[in-house]
Amino acid sequence: MMEPMRDPFRRVRIGLGALTLVLVAGTVGYLLFGFDLLDAVYQTVITVTTVGFTSPRPLTSGSRAFTIVLILVGVGTALYTFSVVLEVLIEGHMRDLVRRRRMERDIARMDRHVIVCGWGRVGREVAHFLMNAGRDVVVIDRDAARLSEVPYAHICGDATDDDVLGQAGIDRASTLVAALDTDADNLYVTVAGKSMRPDIQIIARARSEFSEPKLVRAGADRVVNPQQLGGDRMASFVLQPHVVDFVDVVMHDGTLKFRLEELIVSDVSPLSGATLRSAHLRDRTGALVLAIRRPDGTFLTNPSPEDTIEAGDVLISVGTAEQLGALAEFTARP
């Protein structure tokens, strides 16, 4: 059974309530001994705080006894209230400091991670999918309230600021995802990211189709329009719902043992220069090559056995994790 979360301000409220009650009771008591309102409040405050100022009026035996009781009760209550307020302030500051230092250490250990700029609907989905795929993610957002719900490493700041990108480890990151609310902000992030790391891959979000060519010119490797993708997906469900379901399960669900993956053929791979027939990839690994993307960006879909594999080609393959792992060895090993 989960233990309920402790409210750090509960004791503060109790202390302040008790101190207020003591002050009110002291004021009423002195009013009963003949003090006017201002003198009663003044006498109560100097008694509870033990500042030692002279009483505004002579004290009788009864008022002296009342003052003794007020000192014992009021000083203890004031000390308790002060201590719990100080404890909450120090504890909260130290907790934030420890959390921030731990997060900085976690980010410093990351390599080839993904920086997601913007914790909106798009950024949230991107981060969740990448984390489920086993990738390290650092989220940047300027809204501290939104970041309080981020379960991953995150930085509160402006993603268009070079210093903030540096804190996120852009010098070691593999990809920068610009998923901010406006196209202008995403354009600034793209420019800043490319100026700091010309070789980094940048995926940018575009709300307007007119912003897409500008983001590409700024250095974005891929530009995604969520509205257009949503419309295309809905239309695909109308025309080919089973194909869309199959691709979704293979790419995102993970309930099938088969999945799609892209593998780059290295210069030292034994596959370089071989044909699909001579490579015997189906027999050796069990994986099936669905398409080959050439270094110039062209696709060779449903390749024939006589098609040649070259260094730098990307093999779009389907198979189990074990089959794709075996194929990955062929594409990379000498």
Sequence stretches where pLDDT stays below 50 over 5 or more residues = 1-5
Q: Please give the alpha-carbon distance between the first and last residues.
A: 54 Å
What oligomeric state best describes the polypeptide chains here? Answer: single chain
Whole-number mean pLDDT: 87
Overall structural domain count: 3
Main sheet strand line-up: 3-2-1-4-5-6
Q: What string gives the helices and strands in order? A: HHHEHEHEHEHEHEHHEHHEEEH
Helix content: 40-55%
- The number of helical elements comes to 13
Fold-level CATH name of the largest domain: Rossmann fold
For the sheet with most strands, the description reads: 6 strands, parallel
What structural class is derived from the secondary structure elements?
alpha/beta
CATH superfamily of the largest domain: NAD(P)-binding Rossmann-like Domain
Strand % is 5-15%
Determine and state the CATH class of the largest domain. Alpha Beta
Overall body shape: elongated
Task: Characterise this structure.
This protein has 334 residues and is of the alpha/beta class. It has three domains: 10-104, Orthogonal Bundle (Helix Hairpins), CATH 1.10.287.70; 110-224, NAD(P)-binding Rossmann-like Domain (Rossmann fold); 257-332, 2-Layer Sandwich (Alpha-Beta Plaits). Helices cover 53% and strands 14% of the residues. It has 13 helices and ten strands. The strands form two sheets. Strands 3-2-1-4-5-6 form a six-stranded parallel beta sheet, sandwiched between helices. Strands 7-10-8-9 form a four-stranded antiparallel beta sheet. β1 (114-117), α4 (121-132) and β2 form a beta-alpha-beta unit. The radius of gyration is 33 Å and the shape is elongated. It starts with 9 loop residues before the first helix and ends with a helix.
